Structures are given as structure tokens and as C-alpha cells.
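Item description
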Amino acid sequence: MILPAEWRVRYNYPVGETGTRFFSALREKKILATRCSASGLSYLPPRAYCERSFQPCDEWVEAGTTGTIECATIVTAAFENLPPPPYAIAYVRLDGVDTALINFVQGLDLSDVPAAARRLQPGTRVKVVFRDQPEGRITDFHYELID
């Protein structure tokens, strides 16, 4: 037996100093990453501490506006509070950063899902495109393929 139920919780998530700096920079159409001087690794999304050295990330760097797809998928099922399917998402390692950040891929013809998926292969180059009026949210930008 399955009993349908619904649980909705609204909350304010404190993003801390690191998150505040990241989201504030998005309003200026900048994507900031943190770097650990002990390990040399740069993190996006930014992290307060390095997972390799366990030291604080003590530098900020601006990520490039182009990057490389690490992995991607096309979502064909509907999920609450997300765009109507199909839509594409990808983890992208932006130039100058060591980790990948997920976001939507737009400007891709999704009418033929298998054909679109072939265009989202690892190694594919993309660019960052900001919306005209950024609000300090991860959805202030998306990725587009570089042809």
C-alpha cells in the first residue's frame, strides 16, 4: 500500500561568508572560486576549506567564462520547481578552476534527445552566458555550447 502525502518546508539557508561572496559576485556577472595556497587547488563552487590539505582556502580567483563539460544529461521527466522537460544540465570545469559546477545548458535543440546528448559529450567546450539583470542566484547564468 502507498499513501500519498506531501511535505513542504520553507527555510532560509545561511550561506556563510564564502557563499555570500560567491553569490554577491554573481550580481556583478563574475564567477568566483576559492583557492588553497597549501595545495594549489581551486574550488567551484567555492569552499571555505580545502579537501586535500584541510587548510582554509585563503585566496579568491575569478573563473573563466569558458569551460569544458565533465559530464552532462538531458532530463526528460518532470520535477517540481524545475523547468518543463526536456532540459539539459552539465557539470562544467571553468577555465582556471580545478572542480566542476553544475548548471543548465541552453541554446541546444532538444527535439531529438539522442542527437542532443551526443553534443554534450565530456570535453565539449561551453561558454557562460549571464542574464541581463543578475540577482545573486546560481540561475543568473547558464552554459551554451561553443560552436
Remarks:
- Residues 16-145 form one domain.
- The longest strand covers residues 66-75.
- The beta strands are 32-35, 42-43, 59-62, 66-75, 87-94, 101-105, 125-130, 141-145.
